[in-house]
Structure formats: C-alpha cells, structure tokens
Amino acid sequence: MSASFAPAVTTSALSSRGAVSRDRHALGKTRARGHARARSRAEPLTVAMAANEAKIKVIGCGGGGGNAVNRMVNSGLRGVEFWSLNTDAQALVQSAADNRLQIGKGVTRGLGAGGNAEIGEAAAKESRDAIAQAVKGADLVFVTAGMGGGTGSGSAPLVAKLSKEAGNLTVGVVTLPFTFEGRRRQAAAMESVALLRQNVDTLIVIPNDRLLDVVEDDAPLQEAFLLADDVLRQGVQGISDIITVSGLVNIDFADVRAVMKNSGTAMLGVGVAQGKNRAEEAAMAAISAPLIEQSIDRATGIVFNITGGTDLTLQEINAVSEVVTSLADPDANVIFGSVVDEKYNGEIQVTIIATGFASASSVANEQMMNPNKSARPEQGGGGGAGGDGGGFPWQRRGSPFGR
C-alpha cells in the first residue's frame, strides 16, 4: 500500500465520545505555514502523527495460517514481521513470508500432519525451542490458523502459549471450517479453539459459513477460501495499521494492550462506503457485518480503524466515531486510529474489533449450531452490496476482490 501523509503534529488519539483532541500550539504552527483559514466540511484533514515503534509479529500456523500470511504479504501490510510455521516442507518453500519455520521434522519427516491435530501438536512440542525463539522480542503477536486441520490446529495453542510466556500481547485470529467440510473437521476445530482460548489475550473466531452471506451464489469454491484468507488479513491489519502506519490518528501500543489484554473473545467487522454519507454508512456496515455475532453494546472494549484517501476529513472521522460510541456500552474502553491510503480515495473503510464477549468456546459452539443466527443490529446503511457501496470490500460489484 502506498500512502500520502502530512507533516507530523502532536495530537491525542483517545476519545470517549469520538472527538479528536488536537494540540493547539502545534496546529498554530501548521496554520502559520499556510493553513490559516478554517477548514470547510469538504476540505481534507492534514494532521498526521508519528508512528509508534511496537514490534509486531504474525505467525501463520499450518496451511490456512500460511495462506493468510501470504495474503498479508502480497497486500503490502507494513511494519510487521511475518512467520510461516508448518510441518510440510513443500508448503514452506512456496511461502511469501521472510521467516519460515519447519516444525516436527522427526515427527512428520517434512510431510504434513495429515489433518491430525495430535500430530500437529507433537510436531510443535518437538520444535518448542525454535518456536520460543520465533516469538521472542515482540510486543504484539498474532497467531493465525485455519482450525480443523492438523498442523494449524495442533500447533497454534502452543505457539500462543509460548508467546504469552514471553510477555507478548497475544491475539488469535482463526477460522472455523465451512459446514460442507464435514462434522469431524468441525469437531476438531472446536477442540482446538478451546485450547487456543486458554493461551491468548484476545481470540477472534471467524466462522467460514458466515462468509457465504457475502459472496455471490455462483462464486467458485476457490473464491470462498480466498475470502477466508482475506478476512484473517482484515483482522490483523485493522489492529496493526493503527499502531505501525503513520496516519491521521495513531494510538499508543499501551492503549491497544489495555483494551485487548485478557479480553477474551472478540468480534470483527469491516465496512466500506462511498458517497455523501460514506462515513456513517461505513461505520454501520462494519457494525452490521455478518461476522459481528453479538451487539457491540455487550463489548467491554472496542478498537476501530478508519482508512480513507487523501480526501478523508476530520468531520468524517468524528462521524464514524459518533456512530460507534453511540452504540457501545458507555463504560466500554473505546480507542481508534485513522490511516490515509491513496487507494481509498473516494471511499472510507471502517474496521471494528469488539472485545470482551463470552468465552470463545460458547460463542463458537453457538455459531456452529446456528450458522444463520446473528445478534447484529438490523439498521439501514450497513452490510449490503447495494446503495452507495456499503458492506465488505468484496461485496461491491465492480471492485477488486479484497485489498
């Protein structure tokens, strides 16, 4: 991704009700350089902030996690150290990650785990020291995997455990299998999710069945799996961008830690909109997205990221914040950031991670038992592919698949 940023100005990124606090002295200097007149609603915001230097690692476990890492690398996700971890030596050769770790050489002899999580776990235990070195020296570690297989399901819990033991904020971002993948794979996924939950600070569980709500009926099978990989990317990028990318509003890593440390299950929502009311519509699309299984007013913490082009305005940032905070619990810890990316000129993307829900196992079980049930707010302007372009990026006709 390429981005255009203004000179850095000291500002505060925290807001309990969506207003952005600005340093008057610094803004005075900015005005003295030619910005003396007041901004109109149509004028772009030019305040930027310096990037934080938190060390972030993404570790893709198994085939699903490795595919997600490839998606992140190819999308140009910045400021992140990528690792691909697998028992399958051939899969690692094809990985786009700079760092590749083959585990369980004595267990699998370079082959996969054959869909057996016990073999994946044994492989991880054999390579425990190497994994501990991989997670060392980070502030935030994302552990991503597709649950239900062998290597990902078996290794992810141990990777997360070693990351937490190293003192890292550890976030799991995993998918549950499509129903058509069979009951055995679903049951194995549930077991692995329960184990992973015990070893992460925050767990984002993405049921692949929900993705069927946002793809065309005639979409090929490969597109559905690519979509699952891209949603994993969205979850990671929504958090990492507001920490690592110099943007309009950045937040301290300490603030992210405060919201996500030991926060339990989290929900992910992404919304994109164009047109006159794009800020409000993108916010509602994110809140009403198919992956938001519960109302955000039940969340104890919310992190949201606003991405727009150089035409993104302060008023639009405030409008998004007002929508989110008006629906959140008044006592919830809400933090946000905003990033400028030239690819988003003419549109706004809002990514929401709501934390502090019920246990991952209970939520995931409910998702398995009731794949069509949702506690999302049924409100206008969100989730659909019509209108001015609200909904997931891949929902909009004529738009490239994902980012």
TrEMBL record:
<dbReference type="InterPro" id="IPR045061">
    <property type="entry name" value="FtsZ/CetZ"/>
</dbReference>
<comment type="similarity">
    <text>Belongs to the FtsZ family.</text>
</comment>
<feature type="compositionally biased region" description="Gly residues">
    <location>
        <begin position="379"/>
        <end position="392"/>
    </location>
</feature>
<dbReference type="GO" id="GO:0005874">
    <property type="term" value="C:microtubule"/>
</dbReference>
<feature type="compositionally biased region" description="Basic residues">
    <location>
        <begin position="27"/>
        <end position="39"/>
    </location>
</feature>
<dbReference type="Pfam" id="PF12327">
    <property type="entry name" value="FtsZ_C"/>
</dbReference>
<dbReference type="InterPro" id="IPR017975">
    <property type="entry name" value="Tubulin_CS"/>
</dbReference>
<dbReference type="InterPro" id="IPR008280">
    <property type="entry name" value="Tub_FtsZ_C"/>
</dbReference>
<dbReference type="GO" id="GO:0005525">
    <property type="term" value="F:GTP binding"/>
</dbReference>
<dbReference type="GO" id="GO:0003924">
    <property type="term" value="F:GTPase activity"/>
</dbReference>
<feature type="domain" description="Tubulin/FtsZ 2-layer sandwich">
    <location>
        <begin position="249"/>
        <end position="366"/>
    </location>
</feature>
<dbReference type="GO" id="GO:0010020">
    <property type="term" value="P:chloroplast fission"/>
</dbReference>
<keyword id="KW-0342">GTP-binding</keyword>
<protein>
    <submittedName>
        <fullName>Uncharacterized protein</fullName>
    </submittedName>
</protein>
<dbReference type="InterPro" id="IPR036525">
    <property type="entry name" value="Tubulin/FtsZ_GTPase_sf"/>
</dbReference>
<dbReference type="InterPro" id="IPR024757">
    <property type="entry name" value="FtsZ_C"/>
</dbReference>
<feature type="compositionally biased region" description="Polar residues">
    <location>
        <begin position="1"/>
        <end position="15"/>
    </location>
</feature>
<dbReference type="InterPro" id="IPR003008">
    <property type="entry name" value="Tubulin_FtsZ_GTPase"/>
</dbReference>
<feature type="region of interest" description="Disordered">
    <location>
        <begin position="1"/>
        <end position="41"/>
    </location>
</feature>
<dbReference type="InterPro" id="IPR000158">
    <property type="entry name" value="Cell_div_FtsZ"/>
</dbReference>
<keyword id="KW-0547">Nucleotide-binding</keyword>
<dbReference type="GO" id="GO:0009507">
    <property type="term" value="C:chloroplast"/>
</dbReference>
<dbReference type="InterPro" id="IPR018316">
    <property type="entry name" value="Tubulin/FtsZ_2-layer-sand-dom"/>
</dbReference>
<dbReference type="GO" id="GO:0051301">
    <property type="term" value="P:cell division"/>
</dbReference>
<dbReference type="InterPro" id="IPR037103">
    <property type="entry name" value="Tubulin/FtsZ-like_C"/>
</dbReference>
<feature type="domain" description="Tubulin/FtsZ GTPase">
    <location>
        <begin position="55"/>
        <end position="247"/>
    </location>
</feature>
<dbReference type="InterPro" id="IPR020805">
    <property type="entry name" value="Cell_div_FtsZ_CS"/>
</dbReference>
<dbReference type="GO" id="GO:0007017">
    <property type="term" value="P:microtubule-based process"/>
</dbReference>
<dbReference type="GO" id="GO:0032153">
    <property type="term" value="C:cell division site"/>
</dbReference>
<feature type="region of interest" description="Disordered">
    <location>
        <begin position="368"/>
        <end position="403"/>
    </location>
</feature>
<dbReference type="Pfam" id="PF00091">
    <property type="entry name" value="Tubulin"/>
</dbReference>
